[in-house]
Amino acid sequence: VNYKNLIEDFVEEMREDGEYDSDIRLYADEGIAYHRVMECIDFDCYTVKDVQNSIDGMVEKRLLTPEQRDFVNPALILDCLDSPVISLARKHTHYREKQFMLNIPADEITDTSLKDTVLLQGTVDLFIAGREKGEQNVLVDFKFSKKSDEEIKKRYSKQLELYAMAIEECMNTKVDRKVIYVLGKNKVIEM
Where are the beta strands (DSSP E) in the chain? Predict the structure, then answer.
């Protein structure tokens, strides 16, 4: 994989979408910081103070830099922790940052006629195993985005489709729902 070309293509796509400006790096850093907090935060935080203490603990443990901490608004994290998605995770077995590797035909992930097998690898933000207690299995991906719901769906639908395929293959269980939780908007988008 030629990463330089991938990055150049990504930047060009952002320019075409009118999204690339001098603040793009800052915005990306903010998104990375929020995502890192969601990777590490204790789901049993119930107040802004709890969230702030947890974030400060992440800095002390060097899981988060002080600069990243400065990007994060604890109230927005608390909104997520108060959401139906995290409430469901609290009730069920759940897996955070579940890494996977999956061999898949190239034509299933790109516009190509090649049938070669490629190695797909990624990390699922959150998988809630609700079927264990008669509810749904839910794949959750956290995003930090200012895009509209339709733009988010368009941009990330294939990613969640592939992640669901990986969970079903690697964990031998069905994914009933795929959702994106948009950090900062306190919004769940059904895919």
Answer: 93-105, 117-129, 137-144, 177-183, 187-190
